[in-house]
Structures are given as C-alpha cells and as structure tokens.
Amino acid sequence: MLGNCSLDQNRLSAHRVSGFGSSGFGLSTFERNEKAKMEHALALNSLESAVYDYTAKLEEDSFSGFGTEEELQLVRQKLKEMKDWLEDMPNETSVEELKQKRREVVESSSFIKKSSPIRKLKNRKRQKEELENELSNPGNAEQKNPGLTLENIWNSNACHPHLTLSEPVQLSDSKLSKSLLVVKHNKKKSKCSSVFAVHPIPKTSAGIFYYEVTILGEATDSTEMPYNKWH
C-alpha cells in the first residue's frame, strides 16, 4: 500500500508539472493562450493609436513648421500604408511585427523631434525681428492694432513713498530706440508694485512680445504682484 501511495503521488506531481496549472509551477495552456491574446491586443491597440494620433496631428497642422513639405508627405504616405495594412492585417501577425510597424510610424516623423529645438530658436528670432520692426515703425503696429488705446502712463506722484520712480529716458541704439524706467528702494523696509507703461507694449500677431529687464535683487515671495496696488 505504501508503494502504491508513493506512485500515485508521483503521478499527481507529474500531472501538475506537465499541465502547468494554477496550482503548479507555471501557466496552463489556456492561461498561456489568454496571455498571448492580451499581448497581441495591446500591441495592436498601440499601433492603431499611433497611426490615428499622427493622422489627427497632420490634419490639424500640428506639424506645420517642423519639417519640409517632402518630409510631411512621407509621413502621410507611411500613415496611409499603415491604415491599408491594418484593414487587411493577416490573422497570423505576431506581436513583434505589430511593434515593428509602430516603430516605423514613429521613425517616419522623427525629424520633428530633431528639428524642434532649431525651429524654436528660429521662431524666437523671427518674433524678435518682428517686434523690432514694429517698434521702429509705429505705423505698422497701429495698422495691426487699430483699436489699441494708450491708457497706461508713468506717474511719479502716484509712486509709493518708499519707492523712487524715475521717468522714462530715451536711449539711442543702433537697432532700436528704448525707454528706460528705474524703480528703486529708498527705505530699508520698502514696498513692491507693478508699474504701468506710458504706451502698451506692442505685440506680434501671435500675441507674443519681448522686453528687457535688469535684475537688481532676488525676491523670496512667490505671490504674484498685483497691478496698481501695494502689498
């Protein structure tokens, strides 16, 4: 009886190992199949998301300015190929093949990531040139902003008693005529305030403008400074 019992236990152990059941040391055939289906579904979903996300960005012109028309056309062509392939995707397509297809989609637009820093620098330079042109030709700014009202002014009399406000001084520059306003403390316990300009700062068509400041000290208060109000 003891020998038969030992034999039955050996058979039971062998069955558990060969079947890879949940009570054994691995996955059963059913569980392996389900895991494979899940991995395949995730890879397919990732590919489809990439294709339709890039397609939407192209339709919204989100990639405009980041590549040449030839580069953008290659992206459109790759996306069309992927859409056609997805519609007639073979049933036996492997997970690795789906991942490779997704990499192809991403790599087709890799020029966007590479050119992004350069494009940003060019855009900033272009915006600064537009601003300098508007400041040197006030008529252009008025034509772009016909409803602009000149309501902000410098007012030394309205300055806080613990601050000294120097009126704007015109500085000559080979490229640009600048106005300098100096606000400095004249007491140990001084106050801070926002300052209004005598003319609204010109903006480009994108609503972006540049101005130069000189930092004389460093503050520790993170509270936003209110306009026309002391704190």
From TrEMBL:
Biased composition (Polar residues): 134-143
InterPro entries with a match to the protein in the record: B30.2/SPRY_sf (IPR043136), HSP70_C_sf (IPR029048)
Region (Disordered): 118-147
Name under which the protein is recorded: TTC4
